[in-house]
Design brief:
- Keywords: Membrane, Transmembrane, Transmembrane helix, Transport.
- By secondary structure, the protein is mostly helical.
- The chain is built from 21 helices and no strands.
- The termini are close together.
């Protein structure tokens, strides 16, 4: 991946920097002010992206907790409701990789706008769903195009240096997490009004339209494609950001083909070509990263999917108190994203070590939660699990991007989301079987899966050390 990643980046930067230098020579004062101004512009753009993540999860989390109640109110049986609920995960399984690769080809701005607008359409139809057919129809565009967060993370990967990437993605996850905390509270209040679900769905549609307008008005040209020594460094990958000497909003692949005298290929041809190029990397060199992602995702889902039921059956905790505990845990998870900077400095920016230790902590906490007989210990486990899983999710994404290289970050993140979608399909089945054995079965099984993930990471640790990353990219 080295030739297409760092060396390709160097060649892409070369002409751009060469054209900028003569413009800066006449004004030495402007040259001195450039780094600080560039850092301010970069920070402003990142803050805009954080706002997009916040609004996205704020809108979604208003509606999602109400979906199962609404589909049952439309007359659907529990079996039909379960099938409809799983359809979203199945659509995400097949669309995540394609949409991620498509964003690599057409550019982040266009793909973000299309995904947000089609998701808004889905929530608009949901707000008019007076029967099961319309409800199912509303879930289709959302299942296919609800990849705003994935594309935003790929854009963050394009903008920041590799050393800063986990910190910035952690801050983005924290901003999104705040939306996930506030959304259910607003949705729960609105649903108690007359026609509350339909009002909530329409407000969610309005939030997505607002998000699309925000993306359209983004200061795209403020995101300079050169690294800065102060502030947040940007411009790591112009190929995925936009055309170097064409338009900032467009992808560089067509621009590069024009520069080399070759005719631009249709986007679907570019997508198929990128997927072919990435196939060997994704399914040979990176298999262990995706296996760890799958195992840890299923482990976490086994715990959270039965959280309220387990608290009620084992400790007699009422649903309202369990809901408060979930909100409290979500808040801790958001704060964990902000704490990634000090954690990474403590580990000398060794993301693999952070992931290994956070996974080990998750394994121990799942075992402790399964074995405890007191509510206090269960609350302690929930608090620490919120932190360990939040840190682990950020680190596994960073490892994917580091191993996959800069030229296809959208594709790599998309494949990761597809792997997580597989976990969403598998986890309910495993959870049901484990719960038949014991109420402590799901967290116990999650601990076993986390232990397998730890073993895989320990065996493959040399590949992802500081030297191992470069070695993997050069394979």
């Amino acid at each position: 991946m080295e030739p297409g990643g760092r060396r390709g980046l160097a060649s892409a930067r070369g002409p751009a920097s060469a054209t900028r230098k003569p413009r800066q020579e006449p004004g030495a004062g402007a040259e001195a002010r450039a780094p600080g101004a560039s850092a301010v512009r970069a920070r402003r753009f990142l803050l805009c992206l954080y706002l997009v993540g916040f609004l996205d999860l704020f809108g979604v989390s208003m509606v999602v907790p109400l979906l199962s109640l609404h589909v049952k109110s439309l007359g659907a049986s529990p079996t039909v409701a379960g099938i409809v609920g799983s359809s979203y995960g199945i659509l995400q399984l097949f669309s995540s990789t394609l949409v991620g690769c498509w964003s690599d080809v057409v550019g982040r701005r266009s793909s973000l706008l299309v995904c947000i607008l089609f998701s808004a359409l889905g929530y608009l139809i949901l707000g008019a769903s007076t029967n099961v057919f319309l409800f199912v129809l509303a879930r289709v565009p959302v299942g296919i195009f609800k990849h705003t967060l994935s594309i935003s993370r790929a854009l963050l990967s394009d903008l920041v240096a590799e050393k800063e990437r986990p910190l910035v993605i952690g801050q983005f996850n924290a901003a999104s997490g705040v939306g996930f905390i506030l959304g259910p509270m607003v949705g729960g209040y609105l649903t108690e009004l007359d026609g509350g679900f339909y009002l909530t769905a329409f407000i969610c549609f309005s939030v997505f339209i607002l998000n699309a307008g925000l993306v359209w008005l983004f200061p795209w040209r403020d995101a300079e494609l050169t690294s800065t020594e102060k502030g947040l460094p940007v411009g790591k990958n112009p190929a995925l950001w936009g055309k170097t000497d064409c338009e900032v909003q467009e992808a560089a692949a067509p621009c590069q083909s024009r520069a080399s005298g070759k005719p631009a290929r249709p986007p679907w041809v570019e997508v198929a070509s990128t997927l072919r190029d990435m196939k060997s990397l994704l399914f040979s060199e990176m298999w262990d990263i995706f296996m760890v992602r799958l195992l840890m995702a299923v482990a976490a889902m086994l715990y959270y999917s039965n959280f309220m039921v387990g608290l009620q059956e084992r400790f007699g905790v009422r649903p309202r108190a369990a809901g408060y505990l979930i909100s409290y845990s979500s808040a801790l998870g958001a704060l964990a994203g902000l704490a990634l900077g000090p954690i990474l400095r403590l580990y000398r920016h060794d993301g693999h070590a952070v992931l290994l230790h956070s996974s080990a902590l998750t394994c121990v906490l799942l075992l402790l939660h399964a074995a405890t007989h007191t509510v206090a210990v269960a609350v302690l486990c929930a608090s620490l699990l919120a932190v360990s899983t939040a840190v682990g999710r950020t680190c596994i994404t960073d490892l994917q991007l580091a191993a996959g290289g800069a030229q296809a970050s959208g594709t790599v993140i998309g494949v990761g989301q597809s792997v997580t979608a597989v976990g969403r399909i598998i986890a309910p089945l495993l959870s049901g079987v484990a719960q038949e054995v014991s109420p402590c079965g799901p967290p116990s099984l999650g601990a076993v899966l986390a232990l397998v993930a730890i073993f895989i990471m320990s065996v493959n640790r040399p590949r992802y050390g500081r030297g191992g990353r470069d070695k993997l990219k050069s394979e």
